[in-house]
Each structure stands twice: as C-alpha cells, then as structure tokens.
Amino acid sequence: MAGGGGGSGLSPSRCGASLRGKCAPAPGFPGTAPVCAGLPPALLWAPGFPQKGLVLRVLPCSLFFLRILACSVKKNRYFLLIICILSCSLFLFLCLLARSVKKNNIYIYYISFVQVPLYRAMDNEGKSCIPAELSDILESVSFLDLVGKPSPMESTVLYNPEEQEAYQPLKVFLRVRPFSVAEMENHESQGCVTIEDPQTVILHAPKESAAMKNSERGIGQSVHRFTFSQVFGPETTQSEFFEGSTKEIVRACVNGVNGLVFTYGVTNAGKTFTIQGTSKDLGILPRSLDMIFNHIRGRQYLKMNFKPYLSNDVKKLEDAQVKQEEAIKAALLASLKEEMENVSGAVTNMCHVELTPSNYTSKNQPFDPLEKNFVPLDTHRTNTEQRTQASVWISFCEIYNEYVYDLLSVLSTSKNQKRRVLRICEDQGGNSYIKDLKWINTQSTEEACKILKIGNKNRSFACTRMNEQSSRSHSIFSIRLLKLTDEHQPHVLGVSELSFCDLAGSERCNKTQAFGDRLKEAGNINNSLHILGKCIAALKQNQNPKMKPSYIPFRESKLTRLFQPFFCGKGKACMIVNINQHASTYDETLHVMKFSAIAKQVIQTILPKSLGYFPPKLVGGDGKPIVRFDVNASLDDLPDCTEASTEEEVDITILSHEDLLKTTESLKEKLVAERQSKLLLEVKIRREMAEEMFRQLLETEEAWSNRLEDLKDSYEETLESKFEMYKEAIKKHAYMCAMEQIEDHYVPIEEFIAEQEKVEDRESKILQLERQLDEQSQRLLALGSPNSDILTTENGTELDLANKMMKRANEGLQKQCTEKDELIKSLKLKIQKLNETLLEANEGYRKMAEENSRLKHTIMLKDQEMNNLQNWAKRVLELEETVSSLQKELERKKHFSAEEPKQQKPRRGLLANLKSTVAGTASTPLGKGWGKGEDISTPSRKQVLFAHKTKE
Ligand SMILES: Nc1ncnc2c1ncn2[C@@H]1O[C@H](COP(=O)(O)OP(=O)(O)OP(=O)(O)O)[C@@H](O)[C@H]1O
C-alpha cells in the first residue's frame, strides 16, 4: 500500500524543493501557497507585466509599507511619510477590491476586473521570483476566475471539475449485520438497533448494558442517535452494499485516484464478511476486482515486465526477472488447488448473475457493465486513450502484534520456520510503503480471488469466545493499477492503488476472556485502533480553525503509518462501520459508533493530481531510473536511497541457533571495538576536561582576587564614611547641647556683677546699721542705770524723743533686713539653678564620652574585619600555591604524554596584586585613609583617635 498516486505534477515536497532558495512559503497563506512570501528583493512597478494573473500579496506588502513608514518617522522625513500614507491608503483600497482564487491548491490574489498587474516580486538578480510552475498556473487563470467568486472553494469548483472533490467529509457507511438463528435463540435480539432513515440509526441500551446502568445513575443517556453517509440494514445484500458504498471509490481508482476502504467494528460484526464475503456471496473486494478487470478488458497489459516499485514507482523487469515473477506466481497458485474450482465457480456465477444479466462468460467478453458509468482512464489524454493499457498487481499483508507479515510468501513445509517481518519505509515524498512486499500480477478476478484465499490461509486467525473465525490481525489487500502506453514503446502514465483493510475486532479484553497470546493480541489490536482513533480525533481538531492544532500521531502504529497518506490528501478514504445488534456487545457497539461519529466529521483534503504526488518513475531492473517524467526535477530527486526506512526492526525469533551464535559473536567483537574507541574517546575527553578545568581555575582565581580587591575597597570606603559620619554627629550633638544650655540659663555677666555689687553695698549698709544699733543700745543701757534716773528726771522729754527716733530707726532697719533676706534668697535660688545646669552639662558630657567609647569599639571591630581580609589574602596565597602545584602536575602529565607543551597562559596580575595588597596592608595601617594612596601629611586615623582620647 502506498500513498503515491497517478497524475503528473508536483508533490508538495517537490514543489517546496523547487521553490527553495527563491522564496519561502507564505505564512499567512492558506494551503501550501508557496507564492514568493519571503519578498526579499525589490518591488517593481510593472504595468507592462505580461501575465494575466495578478499576484497581490497582502501580508508582505503591508510589512514593506510599515517598514518604510517606520523608517520615515524615525528620520523625520515627513514628505516621505505623507507619500507612504497615501500609498498605504491606495494599497488598502486595492486590497478591499482584491479577491482570491485557488489554482492547484495555491491561492492567487488578484484585483477584480482589473487587468493591469500591480507589481511582481524580483529576486536579487532581477529575475522574477515566481517559479515556473506558478507562472504556468498564473497563465492559466482565466477571466472567469477573476470575477465574482467569493471563496476559494467555490472558485476551485468552477475552474476544474476534477478538483470538486478536493474537500469532502470522510465517507462513513454503517452496515448492520442480521442475527443468526443461534443468536436469536440466545435472546440477543432486544431491539438495540433501530434504523430511522437511510442516514440515521438509533441505539437503545439494553437492560444489562453498562450504558443503561450509567443512564440510571444519571450519567449519560440510554438512547443515542448517529448519522452516517449511508446506513445499510440487515437485509442489504452484498451487491447492494457494494453499489452503495465502494463503487465510487473503485471508479476513482481506475481514474487514477488512490483509495482506501477500511472496516471498523467489534468482533463478529461482519467486517470480513463485508470485505471478502463468502464463496457464494462475494464481498466488496472481489466485486471491486471484478469491476477493475471489467473496466480494463481489452486493454489489459498481459506481460509482467512492468511491476510496482516502492510506493508509487514502476520497475521494468529484465527477462530473467519476469521469469522469476512467473515462477513465484505459479508456486503461489500451486499452493492452492482444492479451492480453485469453488472460487472459479463462484466468481463466474457472480459475474453471470449480478453483473452481467445476459451473456458474460469470461475475460475475453467485451461486455462491461460499468463502462457507461466510467470516465476513460485518462481524461486529459484522450489522444492516447486508444493505446492505453493497464496492468493489475495485488499484494496481501497483515499487521499482527505490530509486525507486518506478507501473506503471499510461500511458507516452507518446515513447521519451525518463522515468518519474515517486513519493514515499513518511506520514499522521498514521505509516502509509506512496505519494503519487500510481494506484488503478484493478476489477469483476472478469479486469479486474484485465489490469491486472496491463499493469503487468508496464512492469516492469523484464532478462535475467540465471540467469533470462531476471528481475525486477530489487521489485513490489507492492495490492488495496484499501472497505466501504460502501447506495448512497443512502453511508457508509464500513472499508478493508482486501491487498498482494503479488514481491521481486527475492537472488542475489550474482558469480554473475550482473553489470556496469554490472545490477551497480547487484544492489547496490540486495541492499541493500534486507539491510535487510529487519536489520529482521527486530531485530524478533526486540526480542521477546526478555532482550536489549537495538535500533533497527529500517525507514526505511533504501523496501521496509522500506512493510512497516513490517505488522510493527508494523497487518496480517498472510506470507512465501513460494521455492527451487530447483540444486546451482549451493546457497550462495545456504542463505543464503535462514537468513534465513527468523530470520523464522520473529518474533512478529507484530496490533493489534485497535479500537485498531490510524485509522478511515477520508471526504474530498471537494478532500481535505477530509466524514464523521468518530471523534466524539472533535479538529479537529487532520483530514488537512490530506497532504504529510506525510519526504523530498524528484525524479528530475531526467525533466526536459527547457529545464526544467533554468529550474530552474538559478531556483536561481541563490535562491542569490544566499540569499547576501545570509547576508552580512547574518554581519555581524550578527560584531557580536554582537565585543561578546561585548569583554565576555569585560573579564571576563578582571577575573579576571586578581583572580588577581594573590590571588597577591600568597598569596606574601606564604608568605614571611612561611617567614621566621618559619627564624628560629625558627635560634634553636632555637643554643639546642640551647649546651645540648649546656654539658651536656658544664660545671664549676662554685667548684670551679674551689678547685682553682686548691689548685694555687697547692701551688706555694708546692714553692717553699718548694726553698728549704729549697737551704739544706741549701749547708750540706752547707760541711761537705764541710777544715774540714769537723774538723767530721766532731768531730761525726761529728751529721752522720749530719743526713744521714738530709735524705734523708727529700728523699724526701718528691720524692713531693710527683710528686703535683703529676700534678695539673698533669690540669689541663692539662682546659684542653685546654675549648679543644676552644671550637673546637666556634666551628664551630657558623660553621654558623649560613652558614645565616643562606643565608636571606638566599632572602629576596633572594623579593624578586626580588616584583619579577616588579610587572612583572606593569605588564603589566596595558599590557593596560588595549590594552583602552581596543579600546574606543575599538569606539566608533568603533559611531559609524560609527550605532547607538545603548550605555552602557559601568563597569569594575570591577580596573585601579584594580592601579594602586594597583603604586603601593603601589613606594612601600612588598613583602610583607604591609612593605605597606599594616603597623603603622608594627613594624620592617620589612629592619630586622630589618639588625639581624641587625649582630649577626653
Ligand atoms: N450481512 C451479513 N449477512 C449474513 N451473515 C453475516 C453478515 N455479516 C456477518 N455475517 C456472519 O457473521 C459471522 C461473523 O462475521 P465476520 O467473521 O465477518 O465478523 P468480523 O467482524 O470480521 O469478526 P472478526 O473481527 O472477529 O474477524 C460470519 O459467520 C458471517 O458469515
């Protein structure tokens, strides 16, 4: 099965390759749209551009204008700015008129009704950037394309009928299998499936099903409705089913479009029956074969010298190779003798009864019931139609436990012989194909059916509880149709492929009661189907522009790798969902239906033949190309690497004991050689690492010393600034205190002296008065004696007068005394206050002294820090010693390894600096103020402190 297909033209990858170097793909353009998006060169106004199609590249042009705009604003060129704005407006106006048309999956933008091209892109050499392929497309844009088509899809439909099918939802057909008598007896019929109309089916959950139990619990529903492209009921015959489902895809195949039909469903749902049918009631595969052979009747190429090769190519065989092919076919057919007659009879019967109402007998009959429906093989080559011939080749393989096996390999009679595992490879277009898969030339439906039967015999069938003839693998039957010109000068026109994939049942492990190998099979089947489901879900998600694109895990299973091309536009796919109506398998059936509901939403993008694939190449018997169909392709595109496999896989169980021993021996030798080379590599790496470490050590050392220097400087600066700050603070504080005291208790000295003088004056007056008082008292005493009586009598009046005077004087004196006492009291109060102020000043001074001592302590601590720094410096010296010892060690090693001594890097002045720093710090007081840059005339910090102390 290959992803490639017929038709000439460019595959996306080739198209990308041819454009590379000229222009990058346009990021904003839909589809592949490789229309010169890089826009590196100049834009040229070219009214005379002779092309009819106008390429209006909105995004790059907008960017270009924006750039000019930004530039002009930056450089203040307002004239340019105005021109730019005007051009932008014009451009936007033209954009509004712009329409797009899709030609061969490339979106071409043009301006409606305007036949004058706007510009074209030029490369650096002045040549047109538009690749030749695109120019052809542009040439082919008709006026019809340029008018009145709102969407690219519509324009596609209008332009080319072949591209009508470019976008269509994946066709999903449902086939409901009838009950067998045994199943009816087992009460499997509980009305689970109701066909509402030809597109809709309704599932009713039976009582025992998990779906019903869930719905009773309020989770989910018991009734589900599903729509399909077409629903085929139990009464549908094989013929009706073929007509309604597969015929279209077979028709497309004979017209050169690849096709894939795959069946999906639980085990025992009728998948194999649908594809292969029985000998009496043939399925879609033999019917498709019959349709193809009927179609090519009379134009069949009977020789075997053209054979399918890789994914999409054709190999021209030498005579010997042709004989070999014939022998292989004969051997294959010989392995099936007994069924021949049955098959032959059934096919002939089918042809008689169903396809040819009257006289169809054999392949030589000219009757073709499909002829009227069919487009000729090559519609675009009607002149060569008469000479066109077709050769049919078939292959049959299975994917069992994630291994691909060829079902047409003739197994030897030896029971121990293991089947050969085939690899899935990719050609240069990224199309998967199965390497070494046998392709057998067939000349009739009967022959093909025989070969199918042989393949079936080799297929991995195993009896499960649910289906006695259950297929435990995914089988793929492929038909390749080679379209050739006349026999004399053979020429390959195209290759198309139709594949039928009968997927293994999607049942759950517990239902089938699988153990051992069966459990492993079920696990692998479930896994590959799960990945198919993931791919389909991711495809659906990616087609929704509102959702974030997600990774499509095609490569996670063999099945999806082979299906990938069909989901990537290189063919048509159609899904057949088979269900039975059993109540016991309702939940599995519901799961299948939900899966198919997602698949139905996938939109298939079928690339037009002209762009979709590589054209087929004709290669010789040696695999080298003989005829190249793409004249533009470079030699690099030749299939020289047919082994472009992406994964290496060998089933070692097929090897004999001796082979295994030999393999082990050779592997051991390889291991030893590998170890030796690894050892050498390790030595080399270690040496490089040591050098690198040494270099890093030096760098670290330098960095550390720099950092040390910086730290020292910064500490010095900090200390100095702090010291200055404290000094200032102390000064300020002392000044403030003094000022406050002065303000509170200030008495002018003159006032004080005047007051003192007053006090002294008053005291002297008091003394004088006291003396007078004493004198007066003595006189009074003298008067009081006997003599005094005489005096009294004699001088009575005089005495009275004197007494009165004395009394008055006494009173005056007492008054003066009280005044003086009060004055003395107030003066004493003042003195007391002054004493208090003095005490407070003393207290302030004491505090300042304390602050001073604290500062001294801080300075002491900083000194200690400086000492620590000195210790750091010592440590660096030690490191230096270590480094030098390491250096010596390295030199010794270098000498030992007899390598060229490398010149040692001159050590930067780090260590020298450190040494000098340490020496400097040891000989001079630390700190910037006391350090190397200090002026000798300025006093050192210690001197300042000492002076301060002495002041204290
Ligand atoms: N439409 C039908 N009409 C009559 N019989 C049918 C129909 N579909 C299936 N059967 C019968 O049902 C049985 C199971 O069918 P079949 O083997 O095709 O199932 P299956 O899905 O391929 O199972 P498995 O996945 O296990 O291979 C067969 O005996 C087949 O003849």
UniProtKB/TrEMBL annotation:
Q: Where is the sequence biased in composition, kind Polar residues?
A: 914-924
Q: Where is the composition biased (Basic and acidic residues)?
A: 892-903
Sorted alphabetically, which SMART domains does this protein's record hold? KISc
Q: Would you name any one GO CC term? A: mitotic spindle
Per UniProt, subcellular location reads as: Cytoplasm, Cytoskeleton, Spindle
Annotated GO biological processes are: microtubule-based movement; mitotic spindle assembly; spindle elongation
Q: Which domain of life is it from?
A: Eukaryota
Pfam families reported for this sequence: Kinesin
Q: Which GO terms describe its molecular function?
A: ATP binding; microtubule binding; plus-end-directed microtubule motor activity
Q: What is this protein called?
A: Kinesin-like protein
- What is the organism of origin for this protein? Cairina moschata
